[in-house]
Amino acid sequence: MASLSLEGIQKIYPNGFHAVKDFNLEIEDKEFIIFVGPSGCGKSTTLRMIAGLEDISGGTLKIDEKVMNDVEPKDRDIAMVFQNYALYPHMTVYDNMAFGLKLRKVPKAEIDKKVREAARILDLEKLLDRKPKALSGGQRQRVAMGRAIVRNPKVFLMDEPLSNLDAKLRVQMRIEISKLHENLGATIIYVTHDQTEAMTLGTRIVVMKDGVVQQVDTPQNLYNTPCNLFVAGFIGSPQMNFLDAVCSVKGDDVTLTIGKHVLTVPVSKKKALIDGGYDGKTVVLGIRPEDVHDSEAFISNSPNSIIESTIKVYELLGAEVFLYFDVEGTQMTARVNPRTTLRTGDRAVFALDMEKIHIFDKETELTITN
Amino acid sequence: MEYMQKLQKALQELNHITGITLDIKADTPEEAEQALIQIKCLCTAYREKYNSTDFLQNLMTGVLPAYDIDSRASRLHISTSDRRVLFLLEIKSVNDTVMEILKNLFPSQTKTYLIPVSVNVVGILHPIAPDESEETIRNTAYAVADTLTTEALALVHLSYSGIMDSLSELPNVFQETSLALKIGKIFYSEQTVFPYNELGIGRLIYQLPVSLCQSFLKEIFGSKIPDSFDTETSVAINRFFQNNLNIAETSRQLHMHRNTLIYRLDQIQKRTGLDLRLFEDAMTFKIALMIINYLHSERNL
Q1: According to CATH, where is 3.30.70.270 located in chain B?
Q2: ipTM (interface pTM)
Q3: Does A261 touch chain B (CB under 8 A)?
Q4: Looking at beta carbons, which residues of chain A come within 8 Å of B205?
């Protein structure tokens, strides 16, 4: 397997569209790296540049310390898995997996060994004689993975491989891919727009927007300490609540005012606001839905973080309830216990867990407190 | 001597397409010339009668007269009334590997014809079952492009036509699909699959003379025609247009505060005099941007 280095990678299309800007990343051997971001953010383009399918407009790409910018895709020792895979309809599973190797004139005995090994890893051994039409969606996807595995590449590149599967199958295949990474010990670069997929699969996640890397970190760190408004809003479902708040510093006390609601900033967050000179300025307060509490115990213990509103929508998801309400014209979501007595139309009191709030600069959109 | 060499080549070609090996003795240049003509005629006749690829190539490129289509198609057992779609695939080189992959994706029983167009373009004439929808065709297009990319490890661009009900439509459909490939690569260069009916205004702009494009840009921007806008602004503008000039929805999708988006729109208004929140200005701006891109990529403004 391999390590990769992307230094100042750029992609500018002939029509002038700057798809990827100054992309820098070091990928260790055996890492499972996820590129995540909204559609058009440049994640697939970056993957295609690593594969050699797109020319690199600027910067240096290295695989195992060797510069790869001008190396043909077939000589980069990579394998790809895409969203839209097609199996050869008249071939068996065995032949489907062997086909790529046959094209490369690999000796028959070696092909057999590689195919059987891939089938073992993917639990396809009993299906080797079947034709694609006799396979389920998940089994077909595993065959597509098998075609990549038999190449024994240095790096696996996967571009939204699960997007065409239904929700249930996607969850199942996520687990399969995770197991596959453990079994192969492979370096995998995986592109997705689905933040749940990113959070569950990756050892590190690269969040991209408009061709620019926003943050590279572990899933937990991205969730707990997003570096800007975009990352905070993109990672997490339902997304983080954002409220405009005016910061006031009086001696050692720092408060955030949202309309009639005044919230006291805890000690752990105060210093950054005081040092940053935010007194009197409007900042953006971010809080995750699970940190908005409706339990009486929490509310009575947090008198300085109370907000009031009327429930607009009540959504029961079984294990949890989402409550939607407005605060000063901005919609908020609370993720609460299903035993809550609140329903649509009820007047409600919530307490924010102020230790979990995030505060962002309104102009730069960068975090102040993380 | 020259005729002898040509004759040898023609004999090799005859062997290649028919499997027939001939040995011809020509003592004089005149005899060699005569033999060469005969062999060439044989090759042409064989192709006309037995080679469906040759027939479809000629039909597609408009070489074949319309009155000849039915009889020749019937000789080659090609149905003239099947519903079909044409995929036009461009890859670095249409080599044996590419053809082998395509042949296996569309085995002979699928009645799909692979028609080489040039060294880097191949046509795929694919039958459509009555229950197949546009969505199925789209999925097939993406599956072909992605499978070839995965297996041949090469960048693939693919355009596809609408459904044709008769083989006689092939020349027009080929023109339409070729145009889709060209326009797609200019205006939607970050995509790899271009449906014939999703070329939008790019199709119109492509047909415009350069002088007309330049006068339009001068009218909008005066002498200061912008080269391009920064990525964040371009993305914001495109998304704003996609969301029917809806600021709230656009800022939500871009994970951007609405005031930031409004600020960016104000900056564009300062720079160009166009207020993108107004439909007419937005439309003018969109067209101008596309023309700038077109002139940049195609004609080097």
Answers
A1: 79-199
A2: 0.80
A3: no
A4: none
pLDDT tens sequence across B221-279 = 877 777 666 667 777 887 788 788 999 888 876 777 888 889 989 988 888 888 999 99
Which residues have a Cβ under 8 Å from the Cβ of B62 and sit 6 or more positions away? B171
Residues of chain A with pLDDT under 70: 1, 14-16
Contact assignment for A86 to B105 by CB distance below 8 Å: yes
In this predicted model, which residue has the larger pLDDT, B46 or B192?
A: B192
Query: Could you read off the pLDDT of A218-262 as tens digits, one per residue?
Result: 999 999 999 999 999 999 999 999 999 999 999 889 999 999 999
Size of interface A-B (CB pairs under 8 A): 116
Instruction: Please report residues of B whose CB lies closer than 8 A to that of A18.
Output: 228, 230-231, 234
Residues belonging to chain B with any Cβ–Cβ distance to chain A shorter than 8 Å: 97, 100-101, 104-105, 107, 109-110, 139, 142-147, 149-151, 153-155, 186-187, 189-190, 227-228, 230-232, 234-235, 238, 253-257, 260, 292-294, 296-297
Residues of chain B with CATH 1.10.10.2840: 208-297
Q: Distance between CA atoms of A244 and A261, rounded to whole angstroms?
A: 12
Asked if A365 and B189 come within 8 Å (Cβ–Cβ), the reply is no
Please give the pLDDT value at position A358.
97
**3-state SS of A147-199?**
HHHCCCCCEEEEECCCCCCCHHHHHHHHHHHHHHHHHHCCEEEEEECCHHHHH
Structure confidence at residue B301 (pLDDT): 41
How much is the CA Rg of chain A, to the nearest whole Å? 25
Taking domain B208-297, whether its CATH number is 1.10.10.2840 is answered by yes
Q: Which two tokens stand for residue A278?
A: 């935010």
pLDDT digits (tens, 9 = 90+) for A334-343: 999 999 999 9
Q: Which residue of B has its CA nearest to A101?
A: B151
Mean pLDDT, chain B, as a whole number? 86
Please tell me what DSSP assigns to residue B201: T
Bridge partners for A5 per DSSP: A26, A62
Q: State the average pLDDT for chain A.
A: 93
Hey, what CATH class is B79-199 in?
A: alpha beta
In B101-258 the beta strands, taken as DSSP E runs, fall at 113-116, 121-127, 156-160, 193-195
